[in-house]
Amino acid sequence: MRVLSGGQASQTRGLVLGAGVATTLTVWTSLADPVQLPKLFLGGILASWILGILVVGLVSGRDTKFSTGQWALFAFVGGLVVSGLFTDVKYRAFFGTWQRHTGAIFYMIAAVMCLAAMMSFTSHGVLQLRMALIFLGVVMSFHGLLENAGHDPFPFNTLYSPLVGTLGNPDFYSGFLGVCAVATFWYAIVTSSNLVRGLSVLIIGLELFLIMKSVSVQGLVAFAIGFTLISITRLWQWKRNFGISAVIVTCIIGPIAILGILNQGPLASFLAASSLKNRFDYWRAAFEMFKAHPITGVGIDRFDEYYGQYAAHIQVVQGQMTDNAHNVFLHLLATGGLVLFIPYVALLVVIGFTGFRAILKSKGLDQMTLVGIFSLWFGLLAVSLVSIDNLGSTIWFWIVGGALYAISHAPIVATVPHGKSITKVKNPTRKITQKQNLNLLTPALSLILSLSFLLFAFPEVRSASALYKLTANAENLNGAEYAAKLKEAVLIQPSNIDVLGRVASLAGGVSNYDLAIELSKALNEKNAMSYYGNMVAAISYERKKEFTQAIPYRIRLTEIDKWSTSNMVELVKDYVAISDLVNARLIATKISTLYPNSEDATTALGLVNG
Questions:
Q1: What is the pLDDT of residues 389-431, one digit of tens each?
Q2: What pTM was estimated for this model as a whole?
Q3: What is the three-class DSSP state of 217?
Q4: What superfamily would CATH give domain 459-609?
Q5: What ranges do the domains of the chain cover?
Q6: Cβ atoms of 524 and 530 closer than 8 Å
Q7: CB 334 within 8 A of CB 295
């Protein structure tokens, strides 16, 4: 396996852990997207710097072969590139959905972190990783206490539980805090200090309390997995019979807990999540997208534009839209197709198999180290089955996965004692010169890559800043000034379809319908599937009483979201307004056929029948 030399490895480990901590904690409240975008921006800069180190390390280490896990990671990156090339809206392929930002850049950052971990981590480095997660758990818990008391230092505007940490969502917060609690429990199990054990119990108790306050079970699931795996291993090492008993108890309680999460059995009232029912709709739609676009998917992070076409006729929450499958596997399958899904699964299988094999072959403290990091990785993997990738916590899934693979693969990699050499160096002067050249090349390449990413991504940040200012300062501008600022925001990054859509909506919100229509048309040219573009244009024309102009956009919306009867009712109104009762009756009949006796069906028939 290609690995970095001792000095490079130590430096890279520090950078990876620092980048992970910084990315998780970073927020920027003066942006329209205060959570995910700043994480993407900072994470991209740091990952670019690390990539420079990796490139030099790979070039200088050509005498060793890539491992299976590294090839699987390269295959994933290749699949990402292919799917991105086939995505119709390239901006979305790169940057991802608004306030998610799970596009190609997101996964490139994750892949760089994973490769860096594969090439740099040792058993000692894994202990540093554990401390990083314990530290994050403490910081996030302190922040959670402030949020719970109503004193959040970050003025988030959230529709969810107030406990969102620096991740912007209670599910993300809960799941990640559960993983941090696993890291703390792992430390408590292996330490010989009673003081550390006592502090660890207090930290875990606080983390579990905040997980419960977040009203999300994801953290409980992650912690239960880690707690179980670590406890079984410790009991097995102590007395085999105790370990066997623990496995039996787990096999009994585990299925009951899973049924409880699915709202079945005695634990349903405690574990069931109401949002899980909605996820079944999302998962079915994702699979339908895959069946229609099996090779390259509907496009990287294009789930939102296609959901309305592939959603079930009868949904748990009728008419609810979503921009993600809420299952990482299904989301990648739907949006990236098999060319992305297969290498992703292959990578996880290789990491999981290599880690599990190493656990079986190891003993004592080494085995506990492997089980500890495997528990962290598997807990994050389990959360991904019902959640969304977000850089603040997902970056740790890739770092931990790379580190797990590195230390599991380590026995296969020959290590040379310091000061020794496998082969005799024929020309030591040349060797020293090469090393000096590499020492100069590494920071130069890292700087070039980091600056390149900064220049590429900074317009995204400027656009989000301009949009935030437009929203916050609207009352301080007159109509002409506000319109000028709206146009300026669009010009910062013309390819940014998300800002364009929101600026169009803001223009319509202040009754500047001509500008709203102009911006909507520009958006529809860049993204023909845009729900925002067609909706804002339709509403703007209707407010201007130009119903004939509004009708094509309403018809387009029936294709984008084929079950939306509220849109169909508006289309009926438009047809009635221009006295086209034939088409009005056709749409009203369609509503009645789709949802007989519904409120929208009654309204539509009332409009037609006068």
A1: 999 999 999 999 999 999 998 653 333 333 333 334 344 444 5
A2: 0.92
A3: coil
A4: Tetratricopeptide repeat domain (1.25.40.10)
A5: 6-412, 459-609
A6: yes
A7: no
